[in-house]
Amino acid sequence: MNILIQSLPLLIMPAVAAFILLIGAMWRRISGESLLIMAVAGLVAALFFGWQGFLAGTASFPADIIFDKIFYLTVIIIAIALALAMLVSYNYLAERKLPWPEYLALLLFAGFGAGLMAAGTDFIVLFIGLETISIAAYVLAGYTRDGSSKEASIKYFLMGAFASAVLLFGIAFFYGATGSVLLSAAPINKLLMVLALALIISGAAFKVAAFPFQWWTPDVYEGSPLPVTAFFATAVKAAAFIMLFRIVAGISGGLGLKFESLLIALSVATMTFGNLAALFQENIKRMLAYSSIAHAGYMLIAFVVLGKDANLAGAALLFYILAYIVMSMGAFGVLIYLSGGEKEFCNMPDVAGLGRRSPWLAAVFGLFLLSLAGFPPTAGFVAKFYLFKSAMAHGYVLLVIAAVINSLISVYYYMRPVVAMYFGEFQQERSLPKIRYSVAGVLIFCAIFVIILGLAPATILAILSH
Amino acid sequence: MLSYVPVLILFIFALLLGGAFVFLSYFLGRPKKTTTKLNPYECGVEQATLPRIPVNIKFFAVALMFLLFDVEVALLYPWAAYFKSMVSEGLGTFVLIEGLIFIGILFVALVYIFRTGILHWENGK
Amino acid sequence: MQLEYYLIIGLILFLLGLYTCLTRVNAIGMLMGIELMLNAAGLNFVAFSHFNGNHIDGHIMAIFIIVLAAAEAVVALAVLLAIYKRFKVIDTDKVVTLKE
């Protein structure tokens, strides 16, 4: 019975998803609002039980699942991200008359997969979680009727399934090398283990969009519907990083093999590529996709530190993920706010002159972009500062210098929309959409959170450092 | 030899069942003897069109559903294989509930598919 | 039979899948390549499991791989159906609306 209560935050999501699917299929007349409220209520319940579990402490489960603090924190973060993604998509889906039950259920199933990825201590559980979230993501990418959405879906599928196969082949070798699928298993055969690690890191690097495996990201992010892109950039990315954290922490615990230099190279290459490619993008959605690659590069710094101080690295990573979720959800939220019922308006000229036409929206968008660039006193600054400080404390000076230079480069492209908003002239006569309360609520929530995390990070950091 | 007795029983049972159906349909069906029906059976209808006509999309949908549910049952195989040893360890109820939950999930999916009308053959949406 | 034979067959399968995946333009061809790669991994799991005293994890993983391959194939084919309706082709080099 105890086990059941502790796993409630994980189980509540698929249960609500199945319920929504069934009720949506049985009773076609049900409105999108009521389904949305049900889904968000389920997520709030997951958040609540996750918090209870966090207070209660670590519990283990027979089947290689561990409910520790990282798991509960991940569930809380994912639940927040999913709830924001659902609320932000309300008008988008309603105006396009897309079906609600499947959308919400897929998001909730993805949340379940993310929870499994955070809870697994062996490769079977991790892989099932990964596939649950991936398959939901493939379908979501193709959710609208546009050709570009379908194209994004099939591209994401082909690349993602390819990466899964590579990862799986690596896991097979890992199993051969250690005789077990436990993450912490010690290798018997060193040669097989090196092969396994190479394949596993490649597959996982694909999922977090690290440097040589990031090619799918811009196309998939640009082609997918905007709320789904927001979901990819926040929840899916967070889950992939937590999985990588579990893998690297587990493997380096049982192995003592050094792949620190590999991680440093991955990190620097990823952030440099992301920032350089983002510089001259005309489409803001695509720019944010490259920016998400760059942020993945920063987050990889935490994995370099992981070998020295797991607690510090975990706290820095979780804080960064949380900050990145609120600020990028906010940035995508503004784009969703701007996009009309027919078409998405994500190009630079579309935001030109926004500062005069809608000062509040422009101010909020500016805040999110400043936070993404890492200006104080926003969440992005504190997250970066904390991450770089933890790397500095363990003597990775060159890595930190590279990261700081990258942050400076990134200021250029984050400032371009801001400059366009305040100094540009708007070209076309398009009236701004009327106020939408769900999107506006998400924007306000994200903005407040960005400022709170920036001004008073101590409480959250204390929670995350457990 | 004694271990083959169940096989023998199975054979007899199959014969009985098959025979029963044939006889039942013969007595209950009362087929009308029209000229078309009395014609000897040849290989279906004569070919009137090219074989590569576009197939109704419902075939694909049903094929996809079949693929999914057909393979999901593979997950029940290890459950069935370990059921006995689990029962002898006193975990019988737990394992039974686990299996039922899995089947329940499949059932939810099936209900969803029925209600969305993918399997509805005639003039669905 | 030795473990190496299985591994070599697994590797050949994997490389064939990789080759198919990289050279095909047709999306279903690429899907077949991915399935080959998944099955190579499954074969490796079963082989390692067999030479590890019939260790249970390998078998479980192989079954999961089978189920997973089916689930992925279903999703991919459903998306391809939608793409075919929209573009009338399923060649990956013709389904292009996004710029590189």
Describe this structure in words.
Chain A has 466 residues and is mainly alpha-helical. Chain A is 79% helix and 1% strand. Chain A has helices at 2-6, 8-26, 32-56, 69-88, 90-96, 100-119, 123-141, 147-178, 190-208, 216-223, 226-255, 260-278, 284-306, 310-338, 348-351, 354-357, 359-373, 379-393, 397-423, 437-455, 458-464; strands at 59-61, 65-67. In chain A, helix 3 runs parallel beside helix 6, helix 8 (147-178) crosses helix 10 and helix 10 (216-223) packs across helix 13 (284-306). The radius of gyration of chain A is 21 Å and the shape is globular. With 125 residues, chain B is mostly helical. The longest helix of chain B is centred in the first third of the chain and has 25 residues, at 5-29. Chain C has a single domain (3-87), classed as Helix Hairpins (Orthogonal Bundle). The N and C termini of chain C lie far apart (49 Å). Classes of the chains: A mainly alpha (466), B mainly alpha (125), C mainly alpha (100). The A-C interface holds A 122-124, 127-128, 131, 135, 138-139, 142, 145, 147-148, 150-155, 157-158, 161-162, 164-166, 168-169, 171-173, 175-176, 179-181, 219, 222-223 and C 7, 10, 14, 17, 21, 27, 30-31, 34, 37-38, 40-42, 44-45, 47-49, 52, 55, 57-58, 60-61, 64-65, 68, 71-72, 75-76, 78-80, 82-83, 86-87, 92, 95-98, 100.
Key terms:
heterotrimer; A: 466 residues; mainly alpha; two-stranded antiparallel sheet; 21 helices; B: 125 residues; Methane Monooxygenase Hydroxylase, Chain G, domain 1; 5 helices
In short:
The complex is a heterotrimer of chains A (466), B (125) and C (100). Chain A has 466 residues and is an all-alpha fold.
CATH architecture of chain C: Orthogonal Bundle
Q: Report the major sheet of chain A.
A: 2 strands, antiparallel
Uncertain stretches of 5 or more adjacent residues of chain A: none
The sequence of SSEs of chain A as H and E is: HHHEEHHHHHHHHHHHHHHHHHH
Report the CATH topology name of chain C.
Helix Hairpins
- Uncertain segments of chain C are none
Count of helical regions of chain A: 21
Radius of gyration of chain A: 21 Å
Considering DSSP H and I runs of 4 or more, what fraction of the residues of chain C is helical?
A: over 70%
Order of helices and strands of chain C: HHH
> Which structural class is indicated by helix and strand composition of chain A?
mainly alpha
Number of helices of chain C: 3
How does the overall form of chain C come out from the CA principal axes?
elongated
Main sheet record of chain C: none
